[in-house]
Design a protein that fits this description.
The complex is a heterotrimer of chains A (212), B (492) and C (304).
Chain A (H helix, E strand, L loop, with lengths): L1 H18 L3 H22 L6 H29 L11 H21 L10 H19 L3 H22 L5 H29 L13
Helix pairs in contact in A: 1-2, 1-4, 1-5, 2-3, 2-6, 3-7, 4-5, 5-6, 6-7
Chain B lengths: L1 H16 L5 H24 L14 H27 L5 E2 L6 E4 L2 H20 L3 H19 L2 E2 L1 H33 L14 H6 L6 H19 L7 H8 L2 H28 L3 H23 L5 H22 L2 H31 L10 H4 L1 H14 L6 H15 L3 H26 L12 H19 L3 H13 L4
Antiparallel strand pairs in B: 1-2, 2-3
Helix pairs in contact in B: 1-2, 1-4, 2-3, 2-4, 3-4, 3-10, 3-13, 3-18, 4-5, 5-6, 5-10, 6-8, 6-9, 8-10, 8-11, 9-12, 10-11, 10-12, 10-13, 11-12, 11-17, 12-13, 12-16, 13-15, 13-16, 13-18, 13-19, 15-17, 15-18, 16-17, 16-18
Chain C lengths: L2 H29 L8 H11 L10 H20 L14 H22 L3 H32 L4 H6 L3 H25 L18 H4 L6 H25 L7 H25 L7 H21 L2
Helix pairs in contact in C: 1-9, 1-10, 2-9, 3-4, 3-9, 4-5, 5-7, 5-11, 7-9, 7-11, 9-10
The chains are: A mainly alpha (212), B mainly alpha (492), C mainly alpha (304).
Chain lengths: 212, 492, 304
């Protein structure tokens, strides 16, 4: 039951991202998502809380809730760009697309029978929904930082799925995911800095000199 | 132990390279590490190393095949890099297309990332655990991104950004696919019994009938799309032409020759599990479909291509399509695909290295402006012409044999339509590339004949000789390995 | 006919202006003033009824009939809406659709009356009103649909009688989403901040206020009373959700419902005191679409 609350909050954060018009609000929303995921991890393992599980969950919360926003805000400040989101697809069509994606995720989940009834049936749907939202953000947002946020949201969805369903997976893989996300965001932050230095903007729509 | 050394030596050398100040020792480190890696690989041929306890790291036939390709390619490339680095200045370089000034990345970063890239690719070939394979493929993306951004200007930045974003998204999808696979493994199909298989590919394969079918299907689809992005299958290939045209030729050689194969390895291992679980029909259809689409897209963009490095990049897309097609056809097609992996890697690497020579001399990437390569750079010109004919499937070179095997497999399976489309696309690509090849090679040279340093010409020439050899006579050792691997994959 | 059955409509008729008073007092308390007397709306109604109406020569029967028809529609709606566990006077399957459309009828005639005056201010107000309710209506209907799906009935009374504390334990998140959506609809339909500022005196910034600019005397009294009833009716939708007391005893349930209404009024007062009005047109439309999305998510969740 409690997992349901966290999952619905995740859905709400995703919708907020679709409708957000300022980059600062988007970054903070993704940070909140990271914290929610840490709580979900703790909840999923609440029967067998070892030190390792605790460390990974709290480490993940710190990484996604504190470190990433800090990195992204630094990149934003260094780039000195306007803090508007500038999407190809406006806020309202994005929100409507999000609702459609939520419906599609629930439909898909019904096709994939859940082996264990004890797990929340919302979990797979929310994971798929987060992935849709992440992909949508990557495709429809012009600013490079929005695309990094979309990537983070995708990874969040996958992480939620891994945490809730694959309970037997060794901690190593969870750590691997966290590490991968960290390094990826780090490198992306560096590249965004370079992009802004080269061209006074971080609008990837304008990165179109390579074409056939 | 050998297996771990294969990974640790390049990784340690990579870490060390960051701290070496002077250029000469660092370049020596690069070549020495490459040579050491190749000798370890040769020793693995002689005596196959035992897997590590736990079975996470092991060299089976498939892994050894791709490891050898990677190792040989890296050795050739590292020798060539010596001449490349000598030619490149550090800063104040004038861009050939737009004329602005730019810098290069520090050579230490370049060398170190190159060695870490080798370590990551080795890790992919020796991984026997699903999760470890994924981490390794991700590591290759992260290690190669700084390499693409060697020339520090906005075009290469755009290429690097696209590469990083698209490949990261693809690998995230593959991660979800891995999780789906784990669910399929831990919740057995109704009517089966026994303990759940662990996430080692061997276990998944042997207990494949226990895997839960809908989850396995979804897992394969996600993994195909995810690793397919990394491999360059259309329509997920969009990062490929940009990354190859803007990165240094040595990097393009490694990307096309070694990295795409590593992603292919991930797909092949999952395909193995699917076939063992009885989902062969499903997975094969997908592979054939993606293969043909990739070839079609490549053909569309090769004909009339004005940039020769982009042309080679699209050729890589085409050949990855052929690999996918071969595996998808099954039977002798699997053997053909594996042989083609070797042929394509050697040929493509050779072509990219020669392209580097041409770029260095002619200072242009345009297929129209480069003329008379045979006169300006005699040895490079011959290798270039031979290479372009080889890559389009002309006898007596290696790719002809492997492509023919795949064609025969498709006809044996009764898939005439597939065979017809395959031939038509190969013909279209041949026409496109042959026109370019002949136009570039012949005619009055637009540049003065240059001196060609030995280390800039010898590696590609040796690779070319290897391709020629494979077209005429496959050494028994390689032949045995190919047969063994193809049999393990359910072909033959 | 038992007295209990009349409890719900009587409380609506008698107590609805008090809600307005509560909202005003809450705002005044926040601002540090002592504010209007709680029963001020009654005095206003009385004063207006005693006055005579002035009609412009350019208006027709639409202008005169608008307030009356609007009040009549809201009065019918009052008989349909339950107060918490207390059932409504009229109940049948599908009455929630009738409810939504009765509110629509009120709105229609308010808009027509406003357009009938031929003044451009009323025209602005009318066009804004229609735009925002076009966005708010899906939110309302989707939210009610989610509740209907969850309880398995299309009658408002049945739906609300099943919304006990048990229902909150079982489907808490979905109900919370519906509360959020309905709250925004409530604020939009009743011309509250952040959609409309009831205390503004600049015509260009008004929506509801400007539509009734030319009404006077008893017509204005009907409009004021109708607005109070609309506040009550939409508020009881919220109150029934927030206070899940369903003991079966009509007096207890009714009392709980009244407490819920009080809570809603205070909440509106707090919202009005702490926020500024959102910019028209994109922020308000964004808010309303957001409410619609919340309601849609609640519906999707209830369909599981």
């Amino acid at each position: 039951m409690n997992a349901d609350v966290i999952l619905i909050l995740l859905v709400l954060t995703n919708l907020r991202l679709l409708g957000a018009s300022r980059l600062g609000a988007s970054i903070r929303t993704v940070a909140v998502q990271g914290v929610l995921l840490g709580a979900l991890a703790l909840l999923a393992h609440h029967n067998h809380l070892t030190v390792a599980v605790l460390v990974v969950a709290l480490g993940g919360m710190t990484l996604k809730g504190v470190v990433f926003p800090w990195l992204l805000f630094r990149a934003l400040r260094a780039a000195e760009v306007e803090r508007e989101v500038e999407p190809f697809v406006g806020a309202i069509p994005s929100l409507l697309a999000g609702v459609a994606a939520l419906g599609a995720s629930l439909w898909l989940t019904a096709r994939l029978p859940l082996p264990e009834p004890s797990h929340s049936s919302l979990l797979v749907a929310v994971a798929l929904f987060s992935m849709f939202v992440g992909l949508f953000l990557i495709i429809t947002r012009k600013k490079a930082i929005s695309q990094v946020l979309g990537f983070l949201v995708m990874e969040n969805g996958i992480y939620a799925f891994g945490v809730g369903l694959v309970v037997d997976s060794p901690l190593l893989v969870e750590l691997g995911v966290l590490l991968d996300v960290f390094v990826a965001v780090f490198i992306m932050g560096i590249i965004i800095f370079h992009i802004s230095r080269e061209s006074d903007h971080i609008d990837t729509h304008k990165l179109s000199s390579l074409r056939d | 132990m050998t297996v771990l050394l294969l990974i640790l030596i390049p990784a340690a050398a990579g870490g060390l390279a960051f701290f070496v100040r002077a250029d000469r020792p660092r370049r020596a480190l690069l070549v020495t590490t490459a040579a050491g890696h190749t000798s370890l690989t040769v020793s693995a041929w002689v005596c196959r190393p035992r897997p590590t306890p736990g079975g996470w790291f092991a060299l089976d036939g498939l892994g050894l095949l791709f490891l050898s390709i990677t190792s040989v390619l890296f050795l050739a490339v590292s020798v060539y890099t010596l001449s490349y680095l000598r030619r490149e200045r550090q800063g104040g370089i004038t861009d050939i297309e737009e004329g602005f000034l730019f810098d290069n990345a520090p050579e230490a970063t370049f060398t170190a990332c190159l060695l870490l890239f080798l370590a990551a690719m080795t890790l992919v070939t020796v991984s026997q655990h699903v999760g470890l394979l994924w981490v390794a493929v991700e590591a290759t993306t992260l290690a190669s991104a700084p390499l693409i951004y060697f020339h520090r200007h906005h075009r290469s930045l755009e290429a690097t950004w696209k590469y990083l974003l698209i490949c990261s998204v693809g690998i995230a999808l593959a991660l979800l696919g891995n999780f789906f696979l784990a669910v399929a493994a831990s919740h057995p199909q109704a009517g089966t019994s026994g303990s759940s298989p662990s996430m080692l590919f061997a276990n998944l394969g042997s207990q494949a009938t226990q895997l839960h079918v809908p989850w396995l299907k979804a897992a394969f689809l996600l993994i195909l799309v995810g690793y397919g992005t990394k491999m360059g299958l259309a329509p997920l290939h969009t990062w490929l032409p940009d990354a190859h045209s803007e990165s240094p030729s040595v990097i393009s050689a490694l990307l096309s020759g070694a990295l795409l194969n590593c992603a292919f390895l991930g797909i092949v291992r999952t395909q193995q599990v699917c076939v063992a679980a009885g989902l062969g029909g499903f997975s094969r259809q997908l592979l054939v479909g993606f293969g043909l689409i990739s070839m079609a897209v490549a053909a569309a963009f090769i004909v009339g291509q004005s940039d020769y490095k982009r042309m080679l990049a699209y050729s890589s897309v085409e050949h990855m399509g052929i690999l996918s097609l071969g595996i998808g056809l099954g039977g002798a097609g699997v053997f053909g695909a594996l042989l083609h992996a070797i042929n394509h890697s050697l040929t493509k690497a050779m072509l990219f290295l020669i392209a580097g020579n041409i770029l260095g001399t002619f200072r242009t990437k345009s297929t129209v402006e480069v003329r008379g390569v045979l006169r300006a750079l005699p040895v490079s010109g011959v290798v270039w012409l031979a290479g372009l004919f080889a890559i389009t499937g002309s006898p007596p070179f290696g790719p002809f044999l492997s492509e023919f095997t795949i064609l025969k497999a498709s006809l044996d399976e009764g898939r005439t339509i597939v065979a017809v489309i395959y031939l038509a696309l190969l013909a279209a690509i041949f026409i496109g590339m042959a026109t370019v090849a002949l136009r570039m090679a012949q005619g009055e040279a637009s540049r003065e004949p240059q001196r060609e340093p030995l280390i800039a010409v010898l590696p590609p020439a040796l690779l070319g000789a290897g391709v020629l050899l494979l077209g005429i006579y496959i050494p028994p050792a390689i032949d045995n390995l190919l047969h063994e691997t193809a049999r393990a994959l359910g072909g033959l | 006919m038992k007295l209990i059955a009349l409890l719900q409509p009587l409380s609506a008729l008698v107590l609805s202006p008090v809600l307005l008073g509560v909202i005003n007092r809450t705002k005044a308390w926040f601002a540090g003033r002592s504010g209007q007397p709680l029963l001020q709306p009654y005095y206003d109604l009385g004063r207006l009824l005693r006055k005579g109406a002035v009609y412009s020569r350019t208006t027709t029967w639409v202008f005169r009939g608008g307030p009356i028809i609007g009040l009549a529609a809201v009065l019918v709606a009052t008989t349909l809406v339950p107060l918490g566990g207390l059932r409504a006077t009229l109940r049948f399957s599908g009455d929630l659709v009738l409810f939504a459309y009765l509110l629509g009828l009120t709105r229609l005639f308010a808009v027509l009356a406003a357009l009938d005056t031929g003044s451009s201010f009323e025209g602005i107000g009318a066009s804004r009103e229609v735009t925002f309710s076009a966005l708010a209506e899906p939110a309302l209907l989707l939210g009610l649909a989610a509740l209907a799906r969850q309880s398995g009935s299309l009658s408002l009374s049945t739906i609300y009688s099943l919304l006990s504390a048990d229902a909150w334990l079982k489907a808490g998140p979905m109900l919370a989403l519906v509360v959020g959506a309905l709250m925004v609809v409530f604020l939009a339909e009743n011309a509250r901040i952040p959609v409309d500022d009831p205390t503004t005196h600049l015509e260009l910034t008004m929506i509801h206020e400007v539509m009734v600019l030319d009404h006077s005397g008893p017509d204005l009294a009907f409009i004021l009373y109708g607005a109070a009833l609309k506040l009550w009716v939409l508020g009881s939708l919220l109150a029934g959700l927030i206070v899940p007391v369903r003991t079966g005893n009509p007096w207890l349930d009714g009392g709980a419902g009244l407490l819920g209404m009080l809570a809603v009024a205070v909440a509106v007062g707090i919202v009005e005191s702490s926020m500024a009005r959102l910019r028209l047109p994109q922020q308000v439309t964004g808010l309303l679409v957001g409410a619609g999305v919340l309601a849609a998510v609640a519906l999707i969740l209830s369909l599981r």
